[in-house]
């Protein structure tokens, strides 16, 4: 069984938002995004401005606005109050002077945006210094050549497990493993530089349990290091199926003593309700 994350009264909140398609934003949502744009920093606006595909710039603007709205909900701060730093591979994190312990991550697939925020109160650790959070949401796609992908990117134990399954089970397990592996490399902040062959998840170790908001939910997972030392960070992961198409993976790492698991919840919000929750910060 994996080690549990240090007991700091941590709460891990997952928020699921349905995004409009690139061509389906609509005038009302476009106007709302425009009115909320003053929440964004110059750095964020510059990153958004580099998008070239039609509709992508507005989609990225909505994603960043949703992130700020969710951070504001979790911290009782205003959506425009947050300032971000970026890791070597582009992972965003809040600047250290803005409270703690606290970490966040986000992911989107198809029309779903997943926002994850972990928070707690513990004077023993610095803000975001020893919490490593990564999330991934994946839509099961029937046209993806999963055989070519897992043979190239997955570790030997994961490949052997997939080979043992029939085609239907293999496709489900592939996207489960892909989501878990993505969540881990996002948690480390190293991205693909981590090397997808260097660690493995064993789905057979997962324990099914009931979790509100999920069709199926699994705990008892952790990444096993195959070509490097485990290090001082304790990792654990969770996997949940929202419906027959979408699955969510979360990986959390922490330094320190072993204790109770964080409280994990999943909520769903419409894009409009999440942004409109801060009407006092939206000019007319």
Structure description:
This protein has 284 residues and is α+β, with helices and mostly antiparallel strands. 29% of the residues lie in helices and 27% in strands. The strands form four sheets. It has a five-stranded antiparallel beta sheet, covered by helices on one side. The protein has a four-stranded mixed beta sheet with strand order 4-5-1-13. A two-stranded antiparallel ribbon has the order 2-3. A hairpin with a 2-residue loop joins strand 4 and strand 5. Helix 2 runs antiparallel to helix 3. The longest helix has 22 residues. 38% of the residues are buried. About 2% of the residues have low confidence.
The CATH C-level name is: Alpha Beta
Number of helices: 7
The helix/strand class is alpha+beta
CATH homolog superfamily: 4'-phosphopantetheinyl transferase domain
Radius of gyration: 19 Å
> What overall form do the CA principal axes indicate?
globular
Average pLDDT score: 87
Model regions low in confidence, pLDDT < 50 over at least 5 residues = 123-128
Give the strand order, joined by hyphens, for the main sheet: 6-12-11-9-8
What quaternary form is this? single chain
* Major sheet size, sense and barrel closure: 5 strands, antiparallel
- What's the CATH architecture? Alpha-Beta Complex
- Order of secondary-structure elements: EHHHEEEEEHHHEEEEEEEH
CA-CA gap between termini: 54 Å
Taken as a percent bin, the fraction of beta residues is: 25-35%
Give helix % range.
25-40%
In the CATH hierarchy, the third-tier topology is known as Ribosomal Protein L22, Chain A
Protein name: Phosphopantetheinyl transferase-like protein
Domain 4'-phosphopantetheinyl transferase: 133-250
GO molecular function: holo-[acyl-carrier-protein] synthase activity; magnesium ion binding
GO biological process, one term: lysine biosynthetic process via aminoadipic acid
């Amino acid at each position: 069984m994996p080690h549990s994350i240090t007991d700091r009264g941590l709460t891990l909140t997952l928020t699921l938002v349905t995004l409009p398609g690139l061509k389906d934003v609509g005038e009302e949502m476009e106007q709302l995004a425009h009115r909320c744009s003053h929440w964004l920093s110059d750095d964020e606006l510059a990153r958004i401005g580099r998008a070239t595909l039609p509709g992508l710039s507005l989609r990225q603007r909505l994603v960043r606005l949703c992130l700020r709205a969710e951070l504001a909900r979790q911290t009782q701060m205003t959506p425009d109050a947050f300032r971000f730093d970026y890791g070597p591979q582009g992972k965003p994190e809040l600047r250290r002077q803005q409270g703690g312990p606290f970490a966040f991550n986000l992911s989107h697939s198809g029309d779903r945006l997943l926002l994850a925020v972990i928070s707690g109160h513990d004077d023993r650790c610095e803000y975001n210094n020893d919490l490593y959070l990564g999330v991934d949401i994946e839509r099961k796609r029937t046209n993806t050549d999963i055989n070519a992908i897992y043979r190239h990117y997955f570790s030997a134990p994961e490949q052997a497990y997939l080979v043992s399954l029939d085609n239907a089970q293999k496709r489900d397990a592939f996207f489960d493993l892909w989501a878990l592996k993505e969540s881990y490399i996002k948690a480390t902040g190293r991205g693909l530089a981590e090397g997808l062959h260097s660690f493995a998840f064993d789905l057979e170790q997962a324990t099914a349990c009931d979790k509100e908001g999920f069709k199926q939910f699994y705990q008892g997972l952790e990444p096993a290091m195959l070509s490097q030392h485990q290090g001082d960070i304790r990792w654990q992961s969770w996997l949940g199926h929202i419906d027959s198409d979408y699955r969510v993976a979360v990986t959390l790492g922490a330094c320190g003593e072993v204790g109770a698991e964080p409280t994990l919840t999943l909520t769903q919000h419409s894009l409009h309700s999440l942004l409109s929750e801060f009407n006092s910060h939206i000019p007319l």
